[in-house]
Design a protein that fits this description.
With 388 residues, the protein is mainly α. 76% of the residues lie in helices and 1% in strands. It has a two-stranded antiparallel sheet.
Length: 388
């Protein structure tokens, strides 16, 4: 009798293994869809992405690529989170940030080199990232965190380091061009552009050294350092570093390949439907920030506000420190003009956003009111896109 029971119980182990393999395949289903979509679009050449005469088909291609890229990016973030568990902060967040920024650089550069010159696309994308991250997602994180925990705490030294570099690069890259006299309009001369490239990359490199080596403790909340991996990432299935690194790389390559194709229907849609030029930059920013924003909100709900800050402020800093030099470099190499200075109502909105961030993060705690203020500024940003 015992022998019969043992024989019947043996098949449960293969069944469990098969179930685990099935769960793994379902978890990476986005990669299969992404690679399949990339094969379809690259095999078709420009026939699918250059559909301009048929507005419905153009819209379908736009939505198709946008959805697949977003799904793949969100799935890739899961592996970046697993690396964050294994490596600890701020390394995990840094991997996530640099992965997202590489997507932005590819989309912006492809759109700039496609069709008619769009000199404001790079500026619009960077400005949209700042508005969505510092107002939209920061506001949501502070709101949901305040509603659940009343007050949340963070490391003041780390936030001050972020804001100091962000304000410097934002003013020099997006505001100063409006007031220089060497060239007309909100642009830089060749010498000024070269200086901006070198200065931005150098300052961002120094910040990375500070963040990862010399003053790493600035970017870790000491109150939650012991429970960080168990609270914020309790639902993750963590495997080996090699597995998650390989999967993150595969997702990143897939998203970059699709992003190069997505930039073409994005540019065509703006021209075909008469959309505001700022719409293109906003769509790029949404693709870049959506996965990071989701991770930041989840961290805020888990009372890990420091991780939310590392994600969002790190995204803004990397965008300004890397995307602007990439845009300017493309301009110098292709002789295409590029507009950097923020104009119109967006200029005071940028200054107000930077000032609001300084006021919000002047103490070591946040609440619901601060979140509402940032969400109000985000609503103004959306309004100015369609009613400048």
């Amino acid at each position: 009798m015992v022998a019969r029971m043992s024989i019947k119980s043996r098949p449960t182990y293969p069944a469990k293994n098969e179930q685990r393999r099935g769960d793994s395949v379902r978890a990476e289903f986005a990669l299969l869809i992404g690679l399949g979509t990339a094969v379809i679009f690259f095999a078709a050449g420009d026939q699918l992405v250059e559909i301009v005469a048929h507005p419905v088909a153009l819209g379908v291609v736009f939505v198709w690529l946008f959805a697949v890229i977003l799904w793949s990016a969100v799935s890739g973030v899961r592996h970046a989170d697993c690396l964050a568990v294994k490596w600890g902060e701020p390394y995990g967040t840094l991997v996530l940030t640099l992965s997202a920024i590489s997507i932005e650089v590819v989309v912006v550069s492809t759109a700039m080199l496609h069709g008619e010159n769009n000199p404001t696309l790079g500026r619009d994308a960077v400005f949209a990232v700042i508005m969505i991250a510092l107002n939209g997602f920061v506001g949501l994180c502070l709101l949901v965190g305040g509603l659940r925990y009343r007050e949340q705490h963070y490391n003041l030294q780390g936030v001050n380091s972020y804001l100091n570099v962000i304000m410097t690069l934002a003013v020099l890259g997006l505001i100063l061009p409006n007031f220089t006299t060497t060239t007309r309009g909100p642009t830089f001369s060749t010498e000024q552009q070269i200086f901006l490239i070198v200065m931005s990359l150098l300052l961002y490199g120094i910040f990375l050294l500070i963040q990862t080596t010399r003053h790493r403790r600035y970017f870790i909340d000491s109150k939650h350092a012991g429970v960080e991996a168990s609270s914020a990432h309790h639902s993750l299935r963590v495997r080996s570093t090699g597995f998650h690194s390989a999967m993150l790389l595969l997702y990143l390559v897939t998203v970059i390949l699709l992003a190069k194709k997505f930039a073409i229907p994005l540019d065509n849609s703006i021209e075909k439907f008469g959309l505001p030029q700022e719409f293109g930059g906003t769509m790029i920013a949404v693709l870049v920030l959506a996965p990071e924003g989701i991770g930041a909100i989840e961290a805020a709900l888990a009372n890990e506000l420091q991780r939310s800050i590392n994600i969002l402020l790190g995204s803004v800093l990397a965008t300004i420190g890397l995307t602007i030099p990439a845009v300017v470099t493309i301009s110098l190499m292709t002789k295409r003009s590029v507009v950097l200075g923020v104009e119109g109502g967006n200029l005071p909105l940028l200054l107000l956003t930077l000032a609001a961030c300084v006021v919000t993060f002047t103490s070591r705690r946040t609440n619901v009111l601060q979140g509402c203020i940032h969400l109000l500024l985000f609503a103004v940003f959306v309004l100015l896109i369609f009613a400048p």
